[in-house]
Amino acid sequence: xxxxxxVLLSLSIGFVNAQTIDANTAAKTITAAGLKKHLSxxxxxxxxxxxxxxxxxxxxxxxxxxxxKKMELTPGNAxxxxxxxxxxxxxxxxSSLKVNGTSYTLDKDFWISAAAAPQTLFxxxxxxxxxxxxxxxxxxxxxxxxxxxxxxxxxAMSKTMAAQKLGAIGxxxxxxxNPTMPSNLSGRLAFAANTNTFVSMTVSKTVGxxxxxxxxxxxxxxxxxxxxxxxTAAIEWTADxxxxxxxxxxxxxxxxxxxxxxxxxxITSHYDHEGVxxxxxYYGADDDGSGTTGVxxxxxxxxxxxxxxFSPKRNIVFMNVSGEEKGLLGSKYYGEHPIFPMExxxxxxxxxxxxxxxxxxxxxxxxxxYVIGEDKLSSxxxxxxxxxxxxxxxxxxxRFNDPKDPNRFYYRSDHYNFAAKGVPVIFYFNGTHAxxxxxxxxxxxxxxxxxxxxxxxxxxxxxxxxxxxELLKRDMPLxxxxxx
Length: 484
Description:
Elements (H helix, E strand, L loop, with lengths): L1 H19 L2 H5 L4 H11 L12 H16 L3 E2 L6 E18 L2 E3 L5 E2 L10 E10 L14 E5 L5 H10 L4 E5 L24 E5 L1 H7 L8 H6 L3 E27 L4 E11 L4 E3 L2 E3 L2 H23 L6 E8 L7 H8 L8 E7 L16 E5 L8 H9 L5 E3 L18 H4 L5 E5 L18 H20 L17
Parallel strand pairs: 5-6, 6-7, 7-8, 10-13, 10-14, 14-17, 15-16
Antiparallel strand pairs: 1-9, 2-3, 2-9, 4-8, 5-9, 9-13, 11-12, 15-17
Helix pairs in contact: 3-8, 3-12, 8-12, 10-12
């Protein structure tokens, strides 16, 4: 009889827990103190700014894995918490330039990036001068030509993109004032080694004059009177270039569902940042240490709720991606190689910067969050957010949903690579501030009380989506061009 009584008592306790745990109660396990504890590690000195492919990034990934193990979450990638992927980066050690037999010095007379340097000896004698305001609307015949441009209202990058679009083989931009930053001798990270044959560089006015037939540097007035057209100069440009493999990884864990085991809800952040530049650590406490900490805290709250009887109707996946600062690469890799089917993914709730206050915010700066993407793909998104917000009365600011907004934040974080596959998304964001992408983005500047409120409302939104009977409807157009 005693054994039977114990079993019945145990079943009774389990039944009570299953009936009494609710989202609002579970959300209260997310605390400012807990958030600070995680973030102090993630954005601490030991992580060295968490740049993609560095030891700091690997240490941050290991910390995330250790926490998901402690929560007893299921590994998301065939028994592993890591989803590894390789990136590639061009590196230059030296580069030389001769114009009409005269040698010029890197970072004194000319400036280059690894991605736009020649792969073999580059020579040319025919040049085509396009002036200062060259753009992709130009009617000049530049196909197959090496272009020369001077500095004007059109940015050098815009002119370079226009030259590529119109079929030129390269462009040399002449700077009015010599750049103060050294050449970028390490190219952008990408999923394949660079095979680009388009070349470009920036040169001083001295080199520019030599290219255009001058024997001395032109005056400002002379630059403005140089006619568009063909010029001749003997160019010899070499670069010592190699391609390095850069390993990286996304971190994935999930709470499995016993009911709709083939359906998924994602909660995401990026855990990479800018790393170390010129010996200075870029800590990335807000960007995106805050979002990564938010994902951890939300996962922890769900894990504790599960111990008290909570069971989601669909799997809840927690994913921290790398490579966001390099071009949304980690989430792009997942989008192209999904572990769980995108068509069965009900939504992605992406958290990127929730620990600070936008200094330009006009409302109650202590009680707001920007929500982006609710007006796209699913008419279910905004009603769910509004319903959850009845417990919080936060200012849900939707200004960045405006397709005409010049910031284009909808395209600038990892939710975009889910939306591009048709998955409804909400992007949670606090806006930029003076420390954005600077070494001063540190833990001591985080508003943990406000971060707690934001993490809790995201948690309850996830709870609502994880426990509803049906997947979110996909009944709305993207409403924006399908390019970043």
